[in-house]
Design goal:
The complex is a heterotrimer of chains A (438), B (292) and C (332). Chain A is of the alpha/beta class and 438 residues long. Chain A has 12 helices and 17 strands. In chain A, strands 9-8-10-11-12-16-17 form a 7-stranded mixed sheet, sandwiched between helices. In chain B, a hairpin with a 2-residue loop joins strand 1 and strand 2.
C-alpha cells in the first residue's frame, strides 16, 4: 500500500512538472504568470486607407514592447527590491494608460509589457534571469534590480547581449569605468556622495560648529572600499580630518570596538554604508556605548521605513543620500505618490522614484529612436535630456546620470528632505542630541 | 584597558546568547539524533513572535517570553507530529540524513513564508530602556544585553536542573545513553523524543526573542544562527549543557577580542580557527564524552 | 538479464547523443543555461557522493574545493594569462593539495564532529577569500564580445561525464570496496587490513579534484561574480541534498537528484513568482518522507512492483488452478 502511495506521489510530481513545462499559449490576451503589468487594450480606430502603390506598407506592429527586470525580492536586498518593483510597475501602468509608447516605425502607440523575475539577491541567479529574458522574451531593454554587487554582475550581461540597461539603487562607480556602452544609471554615484556631504556641511553649518573630525566605518565590499576611500581623499580638501577609518566585514553583528575607537578619538561625524542589519546594530550599539556623533551619514540601512519603526528616537538625526525623496517637486511625483498611497498606505518610498524615472527615460528614448532596435534605443538613451520624477536627467559618456543628489534626514520618525533647499521639506537638524537625552 | 574590558564584556554578553541558541539543538540532537537544520528558523520565528507582541500590543519583550515559548512549543508539537515522528524508527545514520533533508525543506518554507508575511525588512525591538547601560569600572553594560544574558543563564540552569533532578529529565538522559535499555526500563521513547524536540524548539524561540531585542531579525537569519548553533554545540561537546554554555562564551569572547586586537574583518575567521584547533586537540569537543 | 543491460546501454548512449547535440538542437540560451546548471550540479553532487555516499564521511566543506578551483582558475586565466586548460587543471590540483593538507587532521574527527569541522573550515576559507578579494571579477570587454555559450556547455558536459565515469570506475574497483567497507564498519575494515585513513584520503582527493575542476569551469562560464561566491555553504548543501534525494551510494542517484532539484526549482521560479521556494520546500519534504531511499529507491520500487505483478500474472497464466484454487478461463 505504501509503495502505491509512493508511486502515486512520484507520478503526480512528474506530471505536475511536465504540465508546468507546457509553454503558455501565445495569444494576444496572454497574462504572463510573473506579475507582469498587463497592457491596457484601448480600442483602435483604424483609418480606412487604401495603400498607395508607391507607399511601403508599415510592418505589423508587435502587440507589446517587451522589457524585463530581475529584482531581488527575497534575500538580503529584498527590502530594496520591494521599493524598486512598484516604481517600474506604476510607470508602466501610467504609460500604458495613455496608450503606450509611440513608435514611429509602426506609426502607433504600443503598450509596454514588463516581466519581473526574483533573483533572490543572488548575482548568479540575476544573470540567468536576464539571459532568460533575452532568449525567451526577447526584451528590448533591461531594467535593473538593487544592490551594487548585483548590478556589477548584471551590467556585464547587458553588455554581452547588447541590450540597453537602465539601473538604479546602486552607487558603485567602478562599474561605469569598464567601458560599458549599454549601462545607464540615473542615480547618484560614489564621487557625488563623497563630495556632496562635505559641501552640504560647509554650506549649512557655520565654521566653528562643523564636525571636523570624521569617523568612517568602511564595509569590506567593493562599494564600501570605493566610497570610504573617496571620503578619506576628499576630507582635507574641505577642511575635515579623518580620525578613525575602520573596516568591518558585512554581517558583523558587533561593532563595539570600532565605536569605542571613534569615541576615544573624539570623532564628531560618522560616515558609513551599512546594510540594514549592520546599520541597525551600529546605531543600537552607539546608543548602548554612549557615543553620539553630531552628524551621521549612513547610506542604505536607514532607507527603509522599518528603520524608524524599529529604532524610534534612536534612529533620528541620521542622514542619507538615497537618490530621491517623495517630497520633491517635479512633475509626476504627485501622481506617483497618490498611486503608492492607494496601494501601500504611504507616499512613495525612496527607491521608487528613481525606478519610475527609469521607465520614463526608456519610453522617451524609444519614442525618440522611432524603432525597437536595441542599438537605436541605446543611442537615444545616451542623448536623453528630459525631466522625470527625479528631476532633470542627462547622461555622461560613462552611463552615469547628471541627477539631483538630495540629502534626507530622519526626524521624529519620519524621512524629511533637507537639501537642496528649494526642494526641502524640513531643515537639517544639527547637531544630534545625545541618545539618552531624546 | 577599558576598551579591552569593554570588548570582553560584549563578548561574554553575546556568548551567553550563542550558548542558548545552541543548547536547544544540542538537546534535540543528543536525545533523538535528529539534526534539525531548521533550528535557526525556529529561532527566527521566536524573534518575530517577540517583535509582533511588542509592536502590536506593546508587550515588553522580556515579559512576552512565556507567550513566545508557548508559540514555539505549539510549533514544535506540530512539526514533530507531522514530520519528525515518522523518522523515529530509522537507523541513526538515516535519522541524521533524513532530518537534515527535512530540515532543509522546512528552512526554505519558513524563510519564504516569513518573507511573504512580514516582508524582507530588518526588524528589531527598541524599548524605552534599550539604550541604557550601567557602568562598572568604566565598562558599559547595556541593560538589554545583561538581561538577555541573565535569561540565557536562567534557561540553561533550569534545563540542567530539569535533566538531573526530575524523573522526566533522568528519563531523557537515560534515552541518550542507551535508548533500548531505556525502553526496557519502561520509558516511553516517543514521549521523550516529543518532549525533547518541543523543549529544543522552545529554547530556540527564547533565543530568537532575545536576538530581536539585542540585534535585528530578518527572514533569512536562520542559516547564520543554525551555523552558530552547530559550531557551539560541537565545540562544547555533544550532550553537555555546561559545555554548550562554555562553547558559546568562548566563541563570543574570541570574536570580540579578535575584533579588538586584529580587526573587525577577522572576528569570525579567528573564532572558527580556534574552534578547529580545539576539535583537533579534543575531537569530542571540550566537555563531550569520548564516543566509540 | 543481458537483454535488459543492452536496453540500458542503448538508453545511455541515446541520452548522451542527445546531450551532445543539444546546443545545436535547441536555440534557446535559457535552456542551455539550465542544462549547464544541471551538469554543474551533477558533477558537484557526484564528487561529493564519492566521499559522502560511498565512504560515509559527511563532508560539509565541499564548497571549499569548488571555490578554490574557481579562484585559482579565474586568477590564472584572467590575471596571469595562462591558457584555459592549464588553468582548469591548476584549479583541480590546488583543491587536491588543500584536501591533502587538511585531510590528516580532519579525519581524526568522526561523524557529526567531522561534518561540523569541515563546515567550519570551509567557512574560514569563505570569509578569508571575501576579505582578500572583495572586488567583483568581470570578464574584460574583449572576452565579453566573443563570449559563446556552446564551448562552456561542452566543458560542463565533459566534466560531468568525467566525474561520473571516474566515480563509476572507482566504485567498482577494489578501492571502491574498501571505501564502502570503511563506510559500513570502520574498525572491522581496519582489522581486515583495509587502511581506513588511506581510503578516506583517496576519496577526499578524488572528490576535491573534480569539485575543483567544476569550480574552474564555473570561473570560465560566469561573466561577473564575487570571488567569494563559490565558497558559500549553499553549494555544499545543495550538492548534498541532491545526492541524498537521488540516493547516496549509487552512481545514478546524484544525477537524478541534481536534475530533479534544478528543473523543479527553475520551473517553480519561472511560474510562481511569490511562493516558489515554499512550494519547492514542501515538494522536497514530501519526497523525503515518502521516498526515504531517494528517487533511485523509488524507481527501484516501481520496478519491483512491476516485476512482482508480471510474475504474478505469469503464475496465474501458467497454472490458473494453482493460483486461484478453481477453474478459470485462461488468459484473464
Amino acid at each position: 500500500m505504501r509503495a502505491r502511495i509512493s508511486i502515486g506521489i512520484v507520478i503526480a510530481i512528474v506530471l505536475s512538472m511536465l504540465a508546468a513545462q507546457c509553454p503558455p499559449p501565445a495569444t494576444p490576451t496572454e497574462i504572463p504568470p510573473t506579475k507582469a503589468v498587463e497592457p491596457t487594450k484601448a480600442p483602435e480606430v483604424k483609418p480606412t486607407e487604401v495603400p498607395k502603390a508607391t507607399e511601403v506598407p508599415k510592418p505589423p506592429a508587435p502587440e507589446a514592447i517587451d522589457i524585463g527586470a530581475s529584482i531581488p525580492l527575497t534575500g538580503k536586498y529584498g527590502a530594496l527590491g520591494a521599493m524598486v518593483k512598484p516604481g517600474y510597475e506604476f510607470a508602466v501602468t501610467h504609460i500604458n494608460a495613455a496608450g503606450g509608447v509611440y513608435v514611429k516605425a509602426f506609426d502607433k502607440k504600443i503598450p509596454l509589457r514588463l516581466t519581473i523575475y526574483d533573483d533572490e539577491s543572488d548575482p548568479t541567479k540575476a544573470v540567468s534571469k536576464l539571459e532568460t529574458l533575452y532568449s525567451d522574451k526577447k526584451v528590448v531593454a533591461y531594467l535593473g534590480g538593487a544592490g551594487s554587487d548585483m548590478h556589477a554582475a548584471t551590467a556585464a550581461i547587458a553588455e554581452k547581449n547588447k541590450v540597453p540597461y537602465l539601473g538604479i539603487a546602486f552607487a558603485l562607480y567602478q562599474i561605469h569605468q569598464k567601458g560599458y556602452k549599454y549601462l545607464f544609471s540615473p542615480f547618484p554615484k560614489s564621487p557625488a556622495q563623497a563630495r556632496d556631504v562635505y559641501e552640504i556641511l560647509n554650506a549649512e553649518i557655520p565654521e566653528g560648529q562643523r564636525p571636523k573630525k570624521v569617523a568612517i566605518f568602511q564595509e569590506k565590499t567593493d562599494w564600501g572600499i570605493e566610497l570610504g576611500g573617496l571620503w578619506k581623499e576628499n576630507a582635507p580638501k574641505y577642511g575635515y580630518e579623518v580620525v578613525v577609518y575602520e573596516e568591518y566585514a558585512p554581517r558583523s553583528a558587533d561593532f563595539s570596538d570600532i565605536i569605542l575607537k571613534a569615541k576615544a578619538a573624539g570623532a564628531e561625524a560618522l560616515f558609513a554604508v551599512p546594510s540594514p542589519p549592520d546599520g541597525l546594530a551600529i546605531q543600537k550599539q552607539m546608543a548602548e556605548l554612549g557615543w553620539t556623533p553630531k552628524f551621521t551619514l549612513m547610506i542604505r540601512a536607514p532607507e527603509n521605513v522599518s528603520w524608524g519603526e524599529t529604532l524610534g528616537k534612536t534612529g533620528d538625526y541620521v542622514t542619507i543620500f538615497p537618490g530621491w525623496h517623495n517630497a520633491e517637486k517635479f512633475p509626476g511625483v504627485d501622481k506617483l505618490n497618490a498611486a503608492y498611497q492607494a496601494e501601500f498606505g504611504r507616499p512613495a518610498d525612496l527607491l521608487t522614484g528613481p525606478a519610475y524615472a527609469c521607465v520614463q527615460i526608456l519610453a522617451d528614448a524609444i519614442t525618440r529612436a522611432g524603432t525597437l532596435d536595441r542599438d537605436a534605443i541605446r543611442d537615444a538613451i545616451a542623448a536623453t535630456n528630459m525631466t522625470t520624477v527625479v528631476g532633470p536627467v542627462t547622461f555622461n559618456a560613462d552611463g552615469t546620470g547628471k541627477v539631483l543628489n538630495p540629502l534626507i534626514q530622519w526626524q521624529n520618525g519620519k524621512l524629511e528632505l533637507v537639501w537642496p533647499k528649494d526642494q526641502a521639506s524640513a531643515k537639517l537638524l544639527y547637531p544630534a542630541p545625545p541618545f539618552d537625552k531624546r | 584597558m577599558t576598551p579591552l574590558a569593554q570588548s570582553l564584556a560584549f563578548g561574554i554578553l553575546v556568548g551567553g546568547l550563542y550558548g542558548l541558541a545552541a543548547v536547544g539543538l544540542s538537546l534535540v540532537f543528543g536525545v533523538t539524533k535528529f539534526l534539525n537544520v531548521a533550528h535557526g528558523e525556529l529561532l527566527m520565528l521566536g524573534g518575530y513572535a517577540g517583535f509582533w507582541f511588542f509592536t502590536l500590543w506593546g508587550v515588553d519583550p522580556f515579559l512576552s517570553l512565556p507567550i513566545v515559548v508557548a508559540c514555539l512549543v505549539l510549533m514544535g508539537l506540530v512539526l514533530y507530529k507531522l514530520l519528525f515522528s515518522r523518522m523515529v524508527k530509522l537507523s541513526e545514520e538515516n535519522k541524521i540524513k533524513n532530518t537534515l533533508l527535512v530540515g532543509f525543506g522546512l528552512s526554505l518554507i519558513f524563510q519564504n513564508l516569513a518573507l511573504r508575511l512580514w516582508t524582507a525588512d530588518d526588524r528589531g525591538i527598541t524599548t524605552s530602556y534599550s539604550g541604557q547601560a550601567f557602568t562598572v569600572l568604566g565598562v558599559r553594560f547595556p541593560m538589554v544585553r545583561v538581561a538577555s544574558l541573565g535569561i540565557a543563564l536562567v534557561c540553561l540552569l533550569a534545563l540542567h536542573l530539569f535533566l538531573h533532578r526530575t524523573y522526566t529529565g533522568k528519563a531523557i538522559r537515560a534515552t541518550v545513553q542507551d535508548w533500548e535499555a531505556a525502553t526496557l526500563m519502561g520509558i516511553d521513547i516517543h514521549k521523550v523524543y516529543l518532549l525533547s524536540f518541543v523543549l529544543g524548539a522552545a529554547l530556540a524561540g527564547v533565543a530568537g526573542a532575545l536576538v530581536s531585542v539585542g540585534y535585528s531579525i530578518q527572514p533569512t537569519m536562520g542559516l547564520e544562527w543554525t551555523l552558530i548553533a552547530l559550531v557551539v554545540m560541537v565545540l562544547g561537546g555533544l550532550g553537555s549543557i555546561p559545555g554548550t554554555l562554555v562553547g558559546g562564551l568562548i566563541l563570543g569572547v574570541t570574536q570580540s577580542l579578535t575584533s579588538y586586537w586584529i580587526g573587525g574583518t577577522y572576528r569570525e575567521i579567528v573564532a572558527l580557527l580556534l574552534f578547529l584547533v580545539v576539535l583537533v586537540v579534543r575531537p569530542q569537543g571540550l566537555f563531550g564524552s569520548k564516543e566509540g | 538479464m543481458s537483454g535488459k543491460r543492452l536496453v540500458v546501454i542503448a538508453l545511455v548512449i541515446a541520452g548522451l547523443a542527445l546531450l551532445t547535440v543539444l546546443p545545436v538542437l535547441v536555440q534557446s540560451d535559457s535552456i542551455i543555461n539550465l542544462a549547464i546548471l544541471a551538469l554543474l550540479y551533477i558533477a558537484l553532487a557526484s564528487s561529493w557522493n564519492v566521499l559522502g555516499g560511498y565512504t560515509g564521511q559527511t563532508n560539509l566543506g565541499h564548497a571549499a574545493f569548488f571555490g578554490l578551483g574557481s579562484l585559482t582558475t579565474r586568477l590564472l586565466w584572467l590575471s596571469v594569462g595562462w591558457p584555459l586548460p592549464l588553468s582548469l587543471l591548476a584549479g583541480g590540483v590546488v583543491a587536491v593539495v588543500f584536501a591533502l593538507l587538511v585531510g590528516a587532521p580532519a579525519f581524526k574527527l568522526r561523524g557529526v564532529y567531522f561534518a561540523i569541522g569541515t563546515l567550519a573550515l570551509a567557512q574560514v576559507l569563505n570569509m578569508t577569500v571575501g576579505n582578500m578579494f572583495p572586488m567583483i571579477t568581470s570578464l574584460p570587454a574583449e572576452y565579453l564580445a566573443t563570449y559563446q555559450l556552446a564551448p562552456r556547455y561542452y566543458l560542463f558536459l565533459g566534466l560531468a561525464l568525467l566525474t561520473v565515469g571516474t566515480a563509476y570506475v572507482l566504485v567498482h574497483s577494489r578501492l571502491g570496496l574498501g571505501m564502502m567497507a570503511v563506510r559500513e564498519e570502520e574498525e572491522a575494515a581496519e582489522s581486515l587490513g583495509v587502511s581506513a585513513f588511506r581510503h578516506k584520503l583517496l576519496a577526499l582527493s578524488v572528490s576535491a579534484f573534480f569539485a575543483g575542476l567544476t569550480g574552474g569551469a564555473f570561473a570560465f562560464y560566469h561573466v561577473g561574480y564575487y570571488p567569494q561566491f563559490p565558497f558559500g555553504p549553499v553549494w555544499t548543501f545543495d550538492s548534498m541534498m541532491m545526492a541524498y534525494i537521488g540516493g547516496t551510494g549509487t552512481i545514478i542517484g546524484p544525477i537524478i537528484g541534481a536534475v530533479f532539484f534544478v528543473v523543479a526549482k527553475e520551473l517553480l521560479a519561472l511560474n510562481l513568482l511569490e511562493l516558489h521556494l515554499t512550494v519547492f520546500g514542501t515538494l522536497f519534504i514530501l519526497v523525503v518522507l515518502f521516498l526515504p531511499g531517494g528517487l533511485v529507491e523509488a524507481w527501484g520500487r516501481i520496478r519491483r512492483v512491476l516485476a512482482r505483478r508480471a510474475r504474478a500474472r505469469e503464475v496465474r497464466l501458467a497454472s490458473p488452478e494453482q493460483a486461484s484454487g478453481h477453474q478459470t478461463v485462461v488468459g484473464l
